[in-house]
User: Fold these one by one.
Assistant:
Number 1:
Amino acid sequence: LAAAGVRVLLLEQHNLPGGFATSFTRGRFEFEVSLHKFADIGSHTNSGSVRDFFENDLGVHLDWVELPEAFRLILTDPDEGLDVTMPYGVDAFIEALEREVSGSKESVTNYIELCREVLEGLAYVGQSRGNPDRKLLLTKYANFLKTAPYTTDQVADALKIPEQARKILHAEWSYIGTPTSRTNFTIFAGMLIKFLTFGAWIPRQRSHEIVLALEARIRELGSDVQYNTRVDELLVENGKVVGVVTSKGDRIETDFVVSNASPTLVYNNLVRPKSEVPEIALKECNARVHGLSGFGVYLGLDAPPEEIGLREYHYLIYKNMDTAKNYEAFTTLDPPKIQAVVCLNNAIPDCSPPGTSIVFITALYRPEAWRDVRPRDYVATKNKIASELIADLEKATGASL
């Protein structure tokens, strides 16, 4: 908004910006809180839309670092028997998959080309601002329309992707957060083709570098940011916003509010008077189901990655690729069946002091998994899960943590 010439006041209840895009320090180590990798960045000569947005639309320039590989997928079930490291780049990915699953090249090539067509169709619909040319959609973007109603699994079935190749193609299903039997193919296709085309990147100084650069640019453009300032009331008259009241007691008049708080919080707690909350807004809030939450284990280790035995940046360690069963397992606190692991030093060697390394493990849970955990058992439960994740990482990779 500020880059578009709007005068903005950003109110933040915390004492720094970022939310999940932040870092924290413990002793010698600065840990990235959540970011594994960014899609759609690309290089200066092959830039994605996110890099274009930052640099051309916002005037924000960051020190991006390209990740060395797509992922290393390890399936620990003896019946699965899969341990493969995949590259980015469409041609390189197809060739690596063919080496792993002989005879898969044709069907995988067709699958990835379909992903490209779907993304182009999605981009066209976005650019048309809700008014696409129907004739053009039916001709140039026919496959975008044909596949729109189908799941990721259904499209893989239709293209006869070999089972072993499908496991590798769908390896990053957990980043979307629903099983491939339920994930809309349009969404998955967009993620996959963007990663394959532009690679994956991270900012050199953790994800907090992003928000600090954005904040500096907001101020540079003549707008303002206030920290330690919570919005307590969102004032509405006759269906229109007229202002906000802050935790400091200030009333700020405005005709527009963009809230990054959850709709549940906004409509139940902030709007004043409550009679101004639209009925449809409450219905939408009540219809929402909480998605997955991340469980993070942050490890600062007193040995370099090569000594520990972690050679890659990004690991996906699953018991198997039955995504539906894995998703159901997120509802319990049984030992996690999947984990995503990052060894930051294998992308940014100097991210920690010489002779050390940073490893970050992420598992996923549905909110109901924690429902019966008593407050007095909370820390012990977390430590138990962390120990199980570390043990699974060591067993899968042979690393010595």
Note: The mean pLDDT is 96.
Number 2:
Amino acid sequence: EQFYVPETPEEMIYSFGMAAGSYIKDSVERYRRGKKPEETFQQRLCKGHFIWKWNTTFPHIYSSMIDAYLEQKIPYYFLKRAYEPLKVSIETGDHIYIWVVNDTRDLVKGTVIAKIFDVGANQFTDSFAFPVSVQPGESVALGTLDMLGQMTRDKIIYAELVDEKDEIVARSHQYLDIERHIIFPDVWLKMWQENNELCICSDQFARCVELKGLEDKDSYWWDFSDNYFDLFPGEVKKIQITGKHEKGNIRAKSFYSSKDIECIYRKQ
């Protein structure tokens, strides 16, 4: 019920995949936080997370991570992002809490910058910075965004963790409303290759950018380091490519865009 009513098979697959992926994201992040915000000084209780349906047989299209052709599905990439050892997590409810979950072996220090993004205005409208110091194996609720005042539910909360070397080491974003209540722009993407990486950017917010190989006889088994991801304006997303393909045409398209773009990739 969170998505627009599908009218084509492609839209149906998108709705099923995004519903499963969104559920996985919210569930895994909640488990990994391991406590309520008001319990931030208490012991973290997290006993892990188990995926019971890794793959499935044809013609199932829902809930598994890998399809019958051994291709990664939409939930696979949601799960991969949710399992990142160092995680910025945004919890929404009566208040908006910003968390950092540190499942690395190192003390994490830096700053989390939380921002409000207005999709219609295509810009960040406000921000707040939290100092960060999180021990290995700990999760910490840094605070709320109450200081930014009231906001309408069509906004997106974005947060990034900047380390002491001024590098972004973790990032996340969270919607305040369900998808079918949000109008996404018809965007133009740009894509190019630098060394062995694909670089993708957009001048507007791009919902669910899909990368796909376009080889007529062998379009399977392009192993992208990320896929089905959102892009904020001005952000450059860098994708590593592994797998059996040495070269080929790759298409990038935001789900709500009528335009796509192609790039000829050659492994260097």
Note: The helical segments are 9-33, 74-82.
Number 3:
Amino acid sequence: MPVNYQTPAPDALHPVAGIRLGVAAAGIRKKDRTDLTVIAVDAGASVAGVFTQNRFCAAPVQVCRAHLAAHGNADMRALVINTGIANAGTGEQGLAASNTTCEALAALLEVDASQILPFSTGVILEPLPVDKLVAGLPEAIADLAANNWHAAAHAIMTTDTVAKAASHQISLNGKTITLTGISKGAGMIKPNMATMLGFMGTDAGVAPELLAATLKTIADESFNAITVDGDTSTNDSFVAIATGKSGVQFTTGQEAGWAEFVAAFTALAQELAQAIVRDGEGATKLITVAVSGGKTREECRTVAYAVGHSPLVKTAFFASDPNLGRILAAIGYAGIADLDVDNIRVWLASQSGETLVAEHGGRAAAYTEVQGAAIMADAEITVRIDLARGNAQATVWTCDLSYDYVKINADYRS
């Protein structure tokens, strides 16, 4: 079960003018489940994406990058997403399957194939049954509706135990702006994108170049700040669509209300990203690792990731075992050569309170394991680390590592 998370009700997900979604059961890998999603986008929208850094990136990732580059993050008319098969590690056959998918959907929508963005998620190194996918497209198109975010959130799931979605509305310049998104992911999650897909839409207008630049910043504060198991996948994609239908337009980022819009968009992305960690495979706890006092944000992130990736730290949290020397060890091997450990302080915090665990190079004088165990027993825990060498800070979110993680991944293909 996810940590303190449940899927929002369908009517809690606000439609975004200019975006319609439809789902279908195409039998990509399993029968009798929705596994195909089409997201249709009205003409005139800006669309930008951030993708995996894995060199074995999947065929659909390669096609998406090429199509977005060809159109300068504009003129995209539809997204098509399948689950079950990742179409990764499939070589020329995989590229052909992704291109065939785009051509088939483009013909049905009467647009150009280069205006379609394909996405796949699921098992790697297996061919995509493109004939099944293409056969399912008419059903998904017939299902297109502005209020179908809830259905789409379910259709893009793989090992997720719950569908992940969020929706916000803000008032800017006397007009209401809607922001709605869905995401999927539970394992093979690591920064630089993970086996995750994230799709966010807004009826604000954002110039294509501005949307692309802003999306990278938002990704660094959300989907690139989560880790479940330290594995970076092949298919990770985070896409934003700005339709402009609200009448609020941002062209340079200097307009009134821009900062408020970016803050709302970032908050939505963080909610979707944290939902992935809350639903991490076998997770029982959400762990926030907040590092401050660094010389640069990057070194703060490096330390946070070292702690967040450590199997020893994560298993200790699963057991509520205050074996917190593991946190100090992770800080020490993070790779900061001139780190003065005598200056570092580490706290644990939860709804049960906060306690100083380490200072002056060792255990804090007032700390007791009873305090640590009480905090670690809670479902949401913060590890706060002060490096005491600057003013930079960074936060990442992770989860514990349980027996179920092994069971889920041992049985993944069965």
Note: The radius of gyration is 22 Å.
